[in-house]
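Q: Sequence in, structure out?
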Amino acid sequence: MAASSRPGPPHRSHRLGREAARAQRLALPEGVSLAKGFQLSGTPYYDITHAVLGAVGRIVVSDGEDGRTRLDAEVAGAPSDPAFDRRHELVALVFTEVERVIGLGL
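A: Exactly. Output:
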């Protein structure tokens, strides 16, 4: 039986390397940081924090029905909070940036 030329699943170090490369290429707004976490289901997410505003929101990364990566955004706080619009704006900026970097295929 001939060996398959299809690559197997990426080795853990390769996945970590790609993730590190993505993180280095993110152009985040000033004062914004990301921290990776996992939901109880194992779905990864990135918490978005701002130096002054604190918790801003979250971007959840999951598999879409079509096999492509799906991104969902959550904004922290209630819409009636005076800082909600600013948090929403920051989440939108980070979402666009994460989407851009994922699109690079790193």
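Residues 84-103 form the longest helix (20 residues).
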